[in-house]
Amino acid sequence: MSGSGLPFGIDFGGSGIKGAPVDLAKGDFAEERVRIDTPQPATPGAVATVFKELLGRFDDSDGPVGVTVPGVVKRGVVHSAANIDKHWLGEDADRLFTEATGRDVHVVNDADAAGLAEVRYGAAKGRQGLVIVTTLGTGIGSALVYDGVLVPNSELGHLEIDGHDAEKRAASSVKEREDLAWEDWAARLTTYYRKLEELFSPELFVVGGGVSKKADKFLPLIDIDTEIIPATLLNAAGIVGAALYATESND
Q: Is the distance from CB of 50 to CB of 58 less than 8 angstroms?
């Protein structure tokens, strides 16, 4: 199978770096994914070394490599580092990883990768118009996809609503920390999604993040006019979306 040209997706997180070759025809892993602990400190150089090791475990993927980064990414350069090592700020990650691995590497915001995957293969497949994918987790990630085309770095978790950063009131970590009942959390989410409706008038909201597995507990309680549905790719979304993004960046 060597040299099959399969693209590779890497999901770079705070505790683990996960990767797998991706079959873009199916929108799924071509082989079982591998996880390596994130180095501490997770400086760009240390992470590049792990990427090289990860890619070395798969001899049947020599296509482009996509990498999710929890920050704003413009033309391969990382412009924010709220939850990652500060050495990432201003780093040309595309160039660093391409040189370190000998592969064609493209980095993309983690929520953008997940959003792209959900629109192409998941919950929003075949939907036209503006789809807003939100990931509810430690914060709120967002992806804007219009007719299948990603509008990157939307960062809608940082909208100011009633004097608060939206994610500081409505992320799923806040529900846990404040021990909110589903109804109380859904009321805060209603405020958040109504603001997004008012600003963007989307066709569809897709809700991802780990809590989306319990969508039946809170999505029916969110009182908005726009259709809102749970994400379906779950943990695969970042890797699949990153591989897709890298392939399309090459094209």
A: no
Do 127 and 213 share a domain, yes or no? yes
Q: What is the mean pLDDT of residues 221-234?
A: 97
Supply 33's token pair: 């994914």
**Which residues fall within 8 angstroms of residue 49, CB to CB, at 6 or more apart?**
39, 100
- 203 occurs within a structural domain: yes
The string of pLDDT tens digits covering residues 82-133 is: 778 899 999 999 999 999 999 999 999 999 999 999 999 999 999 999 999 9
Give tens-digit pLDDT for 187-216.
999 999 999 999 999 999 999 999 999 999
Q: Determine whether 80 is exposed, middle or buried from the number of CB atoms within 10 Å of its CB (0-12, 13-18, 19+).
A: middle
Asked whether the beta carbons of 130 and 120 are under 8 A apart, the reply is: no
Dihedral of CA atoms 135, 141, 147, 151 in degrees, nearest 10, equals -170
My answer on whether 23 and 85 are in the same domain is yes
- d(Cα 69, Cα 31) in Å, to the nearest integer? 22
pLDDT of residue 247: 96
The distance of Cα 37 from the centroid of its chain, to the nearest Å, equals 19
Backbone angles phi, psi at 168, to 5 degrees: -75, -10
Number of domains in the chain: 2
| pTM, to two decimals | 0.93
**For residue 41, cis peptide bond before it (omega within 30 degrees of 0):** yes
From CA 168, how far away is CA 216, in angstroms rounded? Answer: 23
CATH of the domain at 85: 3.30.420.40
